[in-house]
Fold these 2 entries.
Entry 1:
Amino acid sequence: MIPENIQRFIQTFSRLPSIGPRQATRLAFRLIAWGPARIAALSQALTGLAQVKTCTRCFFVHTNTDSLCSLCKDTHRASDIYMLLEKETDLISIERTGKYAGTYFILGELTKSGVLEDIHIARLAVLKQSIENTPQKKAREIIIALNPSTYGDLHTALLIKELAPYTEKITRLGRGIPTGGEIEFADEDTLGHSLERRN
Amino acid sequence: MIPENIQRFIQTFSRLPSIGPRQATRLAFRLIAWGPARIAALSQALTGLAQVKTCTRCFFVHTNTDSLCSLCKDTHRASDIYMLLEKETDLISIERTGKYAGTYFILGELTKSGVLEDIHIARLAVLKQSIENTPQKKAREIIIALNPSTYGDLHTALLIKELAPYTEKITRLGRGIPTGGEIEFADEDTLGHSLERRN
């Protein structure tokens, strides 16, 4: 009953994160109603992603002709301060604060296995090598910027152990009550952190 | 900071129904990580939709060489019983019951304006013409299958007025307690319908 082309679309698109078969089905019919011109525009935007490269130094995305992203090429950024992040969208959020002018390093998304996987170990090797290639052979600071969750804390501990020999100082993002939050409704852990880190 | 290609993807994809800028951003980075092969597969599935046509008789989708969908071409289906539906996914749900063997007619999604829009009026004209072209010049039955909501009821009333002259009988889907539902938690309107339509 449902044409082959639509079935293939639903199958392929429902494998995308947070798009299920229902949403993919609705999407298919909406796109057909929109017509070939808009479908072509979407397809073009999609294939444009195939040209995006990954920075060999920090693993953020870029479309530069060489192998480094625009952040790594920016000579105004401190090259001896590193911030470790799980994913590109975390980097974008930090960069939007305008309060960090060091180097970034994307580790890849951490799973709830509680251990570092091959991709993370391979990337950490790149980070260590890049630090060892500097004149001082040590970073001035490494900021571990993982989500403040049980698993984030576990992974942070692992990363501190891995990276302590490569840096003078190792830090993590401050924890406490978020702006706009209410003391009354803050959980105990958050309130505890806000007390410990009062200033 | 975010490459042009990614920005274009986010802009284009966040215009899709139920995909916001956040989901589009996450999607972009996930697709880049998946690599060009999977991006190409998605793009192919997408462009496949451009070949899907709309049935000139019932407005359902098809990829046949002529202008009619496979349901309208099926001579085992009663061609003098029509079911009016808002959208293709409603048709698929009804068809899955295996309990309807008449003709379908997709009216297009109704808005909360409470009036029929140009597209609906144009499609109703097609339906009326198709009924007038039959030997009897009248349908045996028209089933109005809109969602059982306030707006659905309003639109159903409008459609009954429009279509009454074209059919011997005009009906709507039965209303009552859904299978698996509980009397205790059913709303008053649903319970009222289940009493009125007891059998």
Entry 2:
Amino acid sequence: MYSECGKAFIDFFAGAGALNYGHNNDYIKNRIVDYIKNDGLTHGLDMYTVAKREFMETFVENVLKPRKLDYKIQFSGPTGTNAVESALKLARKIKKRPEVFSFMGGFHGMSLGSLSATSNRQKREGAGVPLHNVTFMPFPFGFFESFDTLAYLEHVLSDSHSGIDKPAAIIVETIQAEGGVVVASASWLQGLREICDKHDILLICDEIQVGCGRTGTFFSFEQAGIVPDIVVMSKSISGFGIPMSLVLMKSELDIWEPGEHNGTFRGHQLAFVGAAAALEYREMIDLEGAVASKEQYVRSYLEEQVKPLHPGIKIRGAGLIWGIDLTEAVAPSAVEEIQQQCFRQGLIVETAGRADSVLKIMPPLNIEMELLEKGCLILRDAISSHMYAETVI
Amino acid sequence: MYSECGKAFIDFFAGAGALNYGHNNDYIKNRIVDYIKNDGLTHGLDMYTVAKREFMETFVENVLKPRKLDYKIQFSGPTGTNAVESALKLARKIKKRPEVFSFMGGFHGMSLGSLSATSNRQKREGAGVPLHNVTFMPFPFGFFESFDTLAYLEHVLSDSHSGIDKPAAIIVETIQAEGGVVVASASWLQGLREICDKHDILLICDEIQVGCGRTGTFFSFEQAGIVPDIVVMSKSISGFGIPMSLVLMKSELDIWEPGEHNGTFRGHQLAFVGAAAALEYREMIDLEGAVASKEQYVRSYLEEQVKPLHPGIKIRGAGLIWGIDLTEAVAPSAVEEIQQQCFRQGLIVETAGRADSVLKIMPPLNIEMELLEKGCLILRDAISSHMYAETVI
Amino acid sequence: MYSECGKAFIDFFAGAGALNYGHNNDYIKNRIVDYIKNDGLTHGLDMYTVAKREFMETFVENVLKPRKLDYKIQFSGPTGTNAVESALKLARKIKKRPEVFSFMGGFHGMSLGSLSATSNRQKREGAGVPLHNVTFMPFPFGFFESFDTLAYLEHVLSDSHSGIDKPAAIIVETIQAEGGVVVASASWLQGLREICDKHDILLICDEIQVGCGRTGTFFSFEQAGIVPDIVVMSKSISGFGIPMSLVLMKSELDIWEPGEHNGTFRGHQLAFVGAAAALEYREMIDLEGAVASKEQYVRSYLEEQVKPLHPGIKIRGAGLIWGIDLTEAVAPSAVEEIQQQCFRQGLIVETAGRADSVLKIMPPLNIEMELLEKGCLILRDAISSHMYAETVI
Amino acid sequence: MYSECGKAFIDFFAGAGALNYGHNNDYIKNRIVDYIKNDGLTHGLDMYTVAKREFMETFVENVLKPRKLDYKIQFSGPTGTNAVESALKLARKIKKRPEVFSFMGGFHGMSLGSLSATSNRQKREGAGVPLHNVTFMPFPFGFFESFDTLAYLEHVLSDSHSGIDKPAAIIVETIQAEGGVVVASASWLQGLREICDKHDILLICDEIQVGCGRTGTFFSFEQAGIVPDIVVMSKSISGFGIPMSLVLMKSELDIWEPGEHNGTFRGHQLAFVGAAAALEYREMIDLEGAVASKEQYVRSYLEEQVKPLHPGIKIRGAGLIWGIDLTEAVAPSAVEEIQQQCFRQGLIVETAGRADSVLKIMPPLNIEMELLEKGCLILRDAISSHMYAETVI
């Protein structure tokens, strides 16, 4: 996809999901360059500007209206963690309850409020203070696959002696990306929505890594037919790797007072320009259709070409985010070796999950089929050659 | 400085300090446009890239070496609050103490960790949870002007029955910008540094709003002759209103483990390109010299032309950040009216401080003298006309 | 057992477990009266006194030595919650970790530290602040009976992404008395001890309600063959309803510094006198043997005479603490009616558990068989007559 | 006052204030012995009993009515810290604010909620967790004597940027006993009451050590002519060194729900019997008059005989609680030596304050004049002989 020092690489990482439309997408790039060259305002704080208005109009027309979603848009700062912080604040303010539920395996950011909702122990220890006001619930994965996690959630909320205080909100990723590409089923998400409704709890969907078309649809939660109360987005929303994030909230939830959550970089105009262009670009090339066919290819390839390499290999994913879980297939150190072999062969791929033992496939959504196929081949070869080595030893 | 819908405005706000080199500075702009057009990498996470290396080299050569500062650079995410969060984490991790001291009037950000160190009550109430692990100390201003705030600090640390636990760090702004352009004296900052040394406490200097040359020197703390242990920077560091922030730490303090504080947008390459260009631009036009002469002008103007308008008016500032404190000179509602009159006359000026009763003058550092003079005149007229009205009533 | 206004009552409550040796036990009473009449010191803070020394010697000789337990004794204040607070402090200080695990259904006291470990939601809401640093784990009861709670605990501790920080200690009741007389099995307690050992976590056993012979043996945990690291005792330890509590800790865990946990009433001499007398009294009448035969009687009676009254009735208990769980057998309001009918018939019995739907049988350990039988009969009749009523309606 | 191993001692400590009516007061003792011998109920939880009713009637008639105080009485558990915990809970519940203010030098107990309000650093470090929701304010003593602490308090509450959140309550000792017998003036307490009224904050008076007549009047706050919203009492309330504590609250503040703050030992009947007897005893011997004359004696003695020994000696106190502050008069180690010399001469005296450098005189209120004089003489000699030694060296 891009080259450095002359060498060509296929990118199966896409800037941790910030480059869903590819590196330096020409359509978006031209719009940004034009804007800069025309001396468009670059920095606008939270004031209304032309670029902001155009983005908002495009977002409403192209994204919200077709999906019959009645969200208000908050620009909470340029990073995902800013958006998560803002969403948690809002939820606590609305419900007047300090507690929030998050899920084991979940990742929501590194500033103190978001970190409290992040499950990774190493990251939590970096806080230097005990992290409070978030309780972790089991996610339907691994140890909990044979366990009714929704019944557990319901029990904990209903039992007057659970010791767990009623939360303002439950924050969830439909696919735990950092957690190892762990996919929540549609029925599970629907059940979660019902529990929230029953107990007067807000459902916050963290779409930072899996939104913006990554799973096929623009929002990942669409596929489950649910509507979260609050949505946080970032990464690819600007379409060009420019920092930008959004909080979407149901209209009736907007109880912010002026200046209650502010910040300098909430009005980065280049991001608005890029974001509007990206939304146009999506429609222009029928990105959803393209992802659907590529998903089909990757799914088949992984099931038919990769999974059979070892009985311990597990394949999980949707759209163009896939995880090859090697936990039970290779030694812990081998995953990094596979990753490095891929790199030497010209493929960038990242790891995720406990002990970083899941290879995460996350190419730009508009990757050419030829490159996608070539990347898959490199990946398979790297795993395969390692399997042989494993067996020999 | 810039126009919208045809109307020309003089900007005394500079994007809350994010546009110290002016709107759409040509030198920086060209470098960014060239970079984009040459399809330079835009998004690099925390990997080493050409743009990053060039920024770091320039920063070391142009900023750190001439000042004999031995700081390591951490890219903690694009916003000031990300940098503050990172600095607080690091300090707590180093000293193994959860407590941090901040100052009354201080502003450090809106995510949970930074918000805990922010004194503004309205913003704090937005948290939805009690804010912990930060204790507020008196800042030498207003009620505390006749009070030995350093002696208080020393007492609280020394008294075994103060009830206040020893902090890992003290975070301070040399000038509390949001707090109403409240300037700490050099001797006070030196005393603070001594207290930190004596009690084994880290000194964190928040240069987000007053760094990058705003006070004349690159770092505002230089003028006091002190060296903080940790410095947080943002706003104008990218030189083009692009989100970017830095944490500088004394080399021996870098005890981060890999991945302990991460984030998607720590490697926004356009920001690196802009930031390197900005540092070159500074030197090229001798910005420090230019600010010195403009400071002289503004100081004289305010003292001689504005202060005499009313005995209650107070003037505070340094470099090109100045506050006209009208708290005791006009009715609370009048400040907003003055601000609006300025706007109608083509001048953008922001308010700050308790009850927003301080007019904050913060033009781009490279503002043309003619515009600076014209802006001052508009400002004076607006205050003046309001004074008359006041007197009549 | 005692009378008021002339009416005789059989007591199946025993002062919430504070009167295991009966009301106004003559043996203990005489010792206390003699002590007072001889002008023995009544108040001794934490100084060494004759009464304290005699209690400690008796406790070591009669309780610890025969059980080969090497505990140091701390007098942490007169109430159970003081002892729990002290135990939690000590555990956190030893392990340098703020977190503690407690169990759903558990009750450990009402001061802030203990309340954090108490699961009852209504009690928790009384705190007025969010309660921190305690995470609740499932207890093998009700919803969790078909669930491997130890495997859950092990998973949460082992999973690097559980979001749950490693605790300093796990605090447990062998029988959750307030929680509805919920009995943990010996194998479960052994598994818990193994998990604590494996993960370097202290095991705190809260014997406040079920210690002092209530379950047959002096300590309730003896029957599972485990040795907790820390034990908290109160209620019947003084033998006469006088406030007193103890913290027992393995010798090597005593890292208290002088005065680090103090209080005025840690040296109530009447309590020491009563406590020493109570320990003598226990041996003198072979209390353990007596409880064993009464347990046999109550168990049979409940299984054969009460349980058959309704298929929803559940019987749980050990020694002389038994719960008749009517949750699925009668309407919620009916339990209080049964309790009142008992009272009218001369039997005092308390309720416990979720919705107070468990009748808790907890007579003095030295109750005469005749009264025990009579009390059981009253209880059975009250439940029975209510059952009929239920059925008719 | 009492003897051990044959040796007679004069007691200037009075069980840390728990023995205001002397050791083994005959009047109280006989009532308790009679009660026990008549097989009065000893343990009553929170049920209404004869002994409880008699205490409450006596308390209302003898204490509240003559002072025109309309307080409801809560039995919150037997220790002072239980009462403080209960008062803090209630205040937070009423005002729906988590924050509480306490004072530097203040001591309120050792369980987690009370410890948060205790200023002693060594005790705080024993918590093992960061202590939250309490902010410490300067008390008018030492460093703060030349500082307007009430103006500081008012400023912190009024300043929208103080960073200190509005508290539910301010908890204060009229005399900081553990803090070194530091006396708040009547005008300061009146000012504090006014600030609480102005800002809708509850005033909690901690009378645990200085109530029950210790300062001359039954409540120490009476002398300042103020009425706290909530009062916590313990120590001498039972009159016989038996654990007992009370929370008094203005009637309209009783918003407790049933069982929201409970505990096993809230109904220790021997304490009620003793407490009622103690209140009768007080009146019978005109204790207030007796204390007034003894206060006169001690004050004169200390001012005329002790203070002149060294210019650094400071004398503080009221009623029969006095502190001889030797901080600036002798070496730190000397205070313990003085205390030990007193002990050898037959006088028990305790130390308090920072570095334990204040000798605290706190005899039983009914001490015989002869013993009081003799004790003062021993004390003076011990200090004096030490002064000489100091001078020689």
